[in-house]
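Dear H.,

Thanks for agreeing to be a second pair of eyes. The structure we're designing against is below in token form, covering all 128 positions.
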């Protein structure tokens, strides 16, 4: 039996990904996130949302060498900084490292590359 495909509203995508509705609409308008228009309503297919998120994580397909990911997982940041994942989660929760949750659960954090660069820069300034 074929699994039923989901279609999300802008509000649902906003809540799932952890960004504002305005930012979701902006991603649709600049054609980074494919969408279906029904009259004035905008809907996003589940597979398009997954592709969109994977493109930020650098997981589109492992066959080609592409640009560095724009978003990192907490686990990836832990490897980069040579810290435990628990330390990364603590930094995220205290706001010392900027990120956002895409869903509930500990491994659902995403850290923008520029936030990681800012964090590293701020830490290297303090120790210099």
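And this is the sequence the design step returned. I haven't edited it by hand at all.
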């Amino acid at each position: 039996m074929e699994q039923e495909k989901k279609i999300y509203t802008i509000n649902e995508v906003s809540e799932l990904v952890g960004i504002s509705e305005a930012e979701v609409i902006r991603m649709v308008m600049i054609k980074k996130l494919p969408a279906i228009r029904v009259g004035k309503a905008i809907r996003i297919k589940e597979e398009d949302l997954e592709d969109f998120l994977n493109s930020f994580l650098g997981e589109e397909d492992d066959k080609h060498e592409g640009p560095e990911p724009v978003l990192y997982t907490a686990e990836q940041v832990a490897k980069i900084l040579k810290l435990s994942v628990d330390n990364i989660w603590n930094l995220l929760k205290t706001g010392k490292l900027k990120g956002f949750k895409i869903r509930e659960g500990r491994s659902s954090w995403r850290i923008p590359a520029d936030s990681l660069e800012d964090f590293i820069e701020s830490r290297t300034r303090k120790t210099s």
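Two observations from my side: The helical segments are 10-17, 21-29, 46-57, 74-81, 85-94, 113-127. Strands lie at 7-9, 36-38, 41-45, 71-73, 100-101, 109-112.

Warmly,
E.
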